[in-house]
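EI: anyone free to look at a 331-residue chain?
SC: sure, send it
EI:
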Amino acid sequence: MKLAKFLERVELGKRLTRRNLTIIPLHGNGHKRLDYMLGSDAICAGLLEVGEVDEGGVVPEVVVTSKAEKSVLLLEGEQLVGAKQNRILNISILLRPRSKTHIPVSCVEAGRWRDVSRYFAPGPLSHPKLRAKTSHSVTHFLREMRCPRSDQGMVWEEVDEAFEKVGASSPTAALSDAIEHRKTSLDDYVTRLRYPGQACGLLAAIDGQFVALDLFDKPETCERVWERLVRSYAFDALPTAGQRRKSFRTATADKIVGEIADGPLWKAPSVGEGQHWRLETERLVGSALIARQTCVHLAAFPRPAGHTRRGDEISPPSVRRRARPDGGIVY
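SC: here you go
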């Protein structure tokens, strides 16, 4: 299987630029659209409860109870804030109506392991560098262990780097605190890079280099998550925002879309509705959630530096231990 049939009608929109961040809207994938709610909207409407699996909790998994009469879409890279510690979603998931589902997550708050709320609240989307590294790690775990877990040590290291790059600190090392610390700067990008209308997705570049592509099955979803995505891309752009801007050509974006369309896919174990496909090329990593012959969410990133494809030498994922405030150990 390839993604070509979902990308053959995609057209690149007018380039949008603010400082060192370039956004190219993606229009018209031409396939049918599914009826679902976004997870953040369902939580706010009281139709979705996300909590720890039990009183003790486990780091790489949470449980989601949907009371909605329609499917609910949870997005890869989305942060969940609260409960025992903040997490991010490892993969995009389409929850069945009125269902209870265990979902794979990674911790982005290494310094807390205590309840601050019974359920999670929706948080910001993670920045592309973290999403790319997590995507690559999840692919490795799926190949080796058939489970969509991540290299938790790697995730913590990237969160630490993010704090350092934006000059922020947090008593519990919560990624959401770093994002909140630079809220004013991020708001500037969001204000200048408005949703252009009828876009189904967007491709982002920082300092002239591709960093992420997110494509959805319909403009309504893209419009709902546009500001959150732009804010997440801008977070990675902040460290070099004051430097001389490098251009990103539309022709380069077209080549990237073509490589994604023709890139090899392999089917991974699914969670919820639909099928979960992983994308791997020499230069790209990513995933696609396919349901009812529709690409609900496609996410693609440049392969993280120092990481190789299957068949090359791969170091085993690290498992880094961190002390919890209560004296226990978080893995």
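EI: Confidence is low (pLDDT under 50) at residues 309-331.
SC: 👍
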